[in-house]
Design brief:
Length: about 190
């Protein structure tokens, strides 16, 4: 059987891949630093990032949401293959339907679903994040080198989302250049 690193590296080659290596390393390091015990991933793909969180933080519980049936099935298999099925819960469906049903709070939330939906998911992310917790939003600098005509709407959604994060007085947001841009928002209160 392939190691986790080998299977993840293979996944990097395909469409809708898992997040960049540097993005993953940074999030794992920050999650460890705050002693994260509960993690939520929105847009889990085939489960690699959720599995990495569970492997790095051996007592953490991870909730992963994925709407694509094929990827959700692959995620389920990966979660089982890498032995973290007791701590990674995969919820298959649209985050727009699932997020409002979640209660409690999370120490870390990784938002990596459809970028046009980031603004829509933000109120639930904020509600579900504990004070002192971290919301990571991936790919926020997707169009830093210019916006192709066909992607103007998507670029506008991301700009608006970034404005929302920056103007929220309950959050302190920093953008890192990892991958296509990773926003890190710490909930202050
Ligand atoms: C970039 S991939 C996720 C990669 C994953 N976070 C990782 O690091 O391995 C984005 C995923 O989000 C899923 N997705 C997009 N919109 C969604 C939504 N509204 N609800 C749930 N999943 C969604 C897509 O099906 C896709 O698998």
């Amino acid at each position: 059987m392939q190691t986790f690193e080998e299977r993840r590296a293979e996944e990097m080659e395909v469409r809708d891949p898992t997040c960049a290596n540097e993005t993953l390393s940074y999030m794992l390091q920050r999650a460890q630093a705050i002693g994260a015990g509960s993690i939520l991933e929105i847009g889990a793909g085939k489960g690699f990032t959720s599995i990495a969180f569970a492997k790095t933080l051996p007592s953490a519980r991870v909730t992963a949401i994925e709407r694509d049936a094929v990827r959700a099935a692959a995620a389920r298999e990966n979660i089982r293959d890498f032995g973290v099925e007791d701590r990674v819960r995969l919820l298959e469906g649209d985050a727009a339907d699932i997020l409002p049903t979640l209660g409690g709070t999370y120490d870390v939330i990784f938002l990596d679903a459809a970028k046009v939906q980031y603004r829509r998911f933000f109120p639930d992310c904020k509600r579900l994040l504990r004070a002192g917790g971290i919301l990571f939003s991936d790919d926020v600098m997707l169009f830093s080198d210019g916006v192709p005509k066909k992607r103007r709407m998507l670029a506008m959604h991301l700009q608006e989302y970034m404005r929302m994060l920056r103007e929220d007085a309950d959050l302190s947001t920093t953008v890192h250049g990892y991958g296509m841009g990773l926003a890190e928002s710490v909930k202050l209160r």
